[in-house]
């Protein structure tokens, strides 16, 4: 009987210990099954669960290689050698990290390890129809961080396709013991900003020669708004900002490198814009971006044809007969003859760099006009690039209806405001 009591007592202690361990694990671990993800770059990999332990943020994922279609299956039957062919391979980039934007501050949580999948440079071959379940371990997110990105890499020329996920929503409540912290204010602010639809504007800054990422700043200007300055995420060169739809002018500020400016149009989907900078004049502060920069004044006489255009900085010409579909950025076929002359002139002057400036009349919404001018001038740039001109030689800017040549109201007189101009920026 005594033995039984001892055994019974031991069983009770073991039971209580087990219950305590389970309760402790429940406190330390927080699990979100099938978290809501607002955006991702690949359609063949999914996040099935996110677990927060006392040490790690564990992201459980599932990769599904698409099965062969009927035609490919028949080809494999006819050619047995195709059975041995590996269609693709997978791995996790050790440079992956989790990123959180909280109250305007960016936080990064490093990659620790992966289970069930190789880490580059190792890789695993996969066949059509294969399914891989794996887990990736990162540093533990801080309590209260319930919206994060998983940034693996940028798509690379060597064929790697990255698995990036944006705005992953999980359960990770703030520490209740810190009642006097500013956590409630953060939550209130995020609720307020959630009411305004925003889109992710992101990119990366590189050295144009070495292709290495650069640390620096990006000046962001929207027409009618105060300029904002972003810092890259350390030496990764990555910059990110949630913005409202519209047109934005971005200017790079990297010590020891030339400034590069680009205009992007943000609509409903995330926009990425990368910069490849050349070493040049050093900078110490972002450029003043309180208003669009005025174009370089034209010389005393503006060229009337591409043949007369001089390969001198400041030389300018209005590209005649560059026609688009009404209200669209689609070139009409009759524009090709004049654009072919631009291509020929730039090939004849291989060191020259230019700026294309797009303008519209003042009919309609000014914001729409700005977007249309940007889209049209980008279309012209794309035509030149597709016909053998290096994109690095062409800068494209749209000014909408902000720089009219005529303020007259008749349609015939307003027509002069709808134009594309070419300005030589480097000899």
UniProtKB/TrEMBL annotation:
Transmembrane segments: none annotated. Residues 1-29 form the signal peptide. The keyword Protein biosynthesis does not apply. Residues 313-427 form the OmpA-like domain. Residues 286-307 are annotated as: Disordered. Its main location: membrane. GO terms for molecular function: carbohydrate binding. It holds the Pfam family OmpA. SUPFAM superfamilies: OmpA-like, Starch-binding domain-like. It comes from the Bacteria. It is found in: Cell outer membrane. GO terms for cellular component: cell outer membrane. InterPro entries: Bact_OuterMem_StrucFunc, Carb-bd-like_fold, OMP_bac, OmpA-like, OmpA-like_sf. Keywords: Cell outer membrane, Membrane, Signal. This is OmpA-like domain-containing protein. It comes from Siphonobacter curvatus. The lineage of its organism: Bacteria, Pseudomonadati, Bacteroidota, Cytophagia, Cytophagales.
């Amino acid at each position: 009987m005594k033995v039984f009591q001892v055994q019974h007592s031991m069983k009770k202690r073991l039971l209580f210990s087990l219950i305590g361990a389970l309760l402790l694990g429940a406190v330390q671990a927080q699990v979100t099954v099938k978290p809501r993800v607002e955006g991702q770059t690949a359609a063949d990999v999914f996040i099935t669960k996110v677990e927060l332990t006392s040490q790690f943020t564990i992201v459980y994922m599932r990769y599904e290689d698409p099965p062969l279609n009927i035609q490919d299956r028949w080809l494999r039957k006819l050619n047995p050698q195709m059975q041995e062919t590996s269609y693709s391979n997978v791995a996790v980039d050790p440079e992956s990290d989790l990123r959180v934007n909280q109250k305007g501050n960016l936080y990064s949580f490093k990659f620790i390890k992966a289970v069930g999948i190789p880490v580059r440079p190792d890789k695993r071959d996969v066949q059509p129809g294969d399914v891989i379940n794996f887990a990736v371990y990162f540093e533990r997110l801080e309590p209260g961080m319930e919206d994060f990105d998983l940034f693996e890499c940028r798509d690379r020329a060597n064929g790697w396709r990255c698995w990036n996920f944006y705005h992953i929503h999980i359960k990770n409540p703030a520490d209740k013991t810190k009642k006097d912290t500013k956590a409630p204010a953060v939550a209130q602010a995020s609720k307020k900003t959630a009411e305004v639809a925003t889109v992710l504007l992101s990119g990366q800054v590189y050295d144009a020669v070495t292709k290495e990422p650069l640390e620096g700043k990006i000046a962001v200007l929207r027409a009618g708004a105060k300029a904002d300055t972003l810092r890259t995420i350390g030496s990764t060169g990555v910059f990110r900002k949630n913005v409202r739809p519209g047109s934005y002018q971005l200017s790079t500020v990297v010590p020891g490198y030339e400034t590069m400016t680009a205009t992007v149009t943000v609509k409903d989907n995330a926009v990425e814009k990368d910069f490849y900078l050349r070493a040049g004049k050093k900078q110490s502060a972002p450029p003043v971006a309180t208003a669009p920069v005025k174009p370089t004044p034209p010389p005393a006489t503006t060229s009337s044809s591409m043949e007369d255009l001089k390969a001198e900085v400041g030389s300018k010409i209005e590209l005649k007969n560059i026609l688009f579909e009404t209200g669209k950025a689609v070139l009409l076929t009759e524009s090709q003859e004049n654009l072919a002359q631009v291509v020929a002139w730039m090939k004849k002057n291989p060191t020259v760099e230019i700026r294309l400036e797009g303008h519209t009349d003042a009919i309609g919404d000014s914001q729409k006009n700005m977007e249309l001018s940007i889209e049209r001038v980008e279309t012209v740039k794309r035509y030149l690039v597709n016909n053998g001109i290096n994109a690095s030689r062409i800068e494209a800017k749209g000014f909408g209806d902000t720089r009219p040549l005529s303020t007259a109201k008749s349609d015939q007189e307003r027509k002069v405001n709808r134009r594309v101009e070419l300005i030589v920026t480097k000899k």
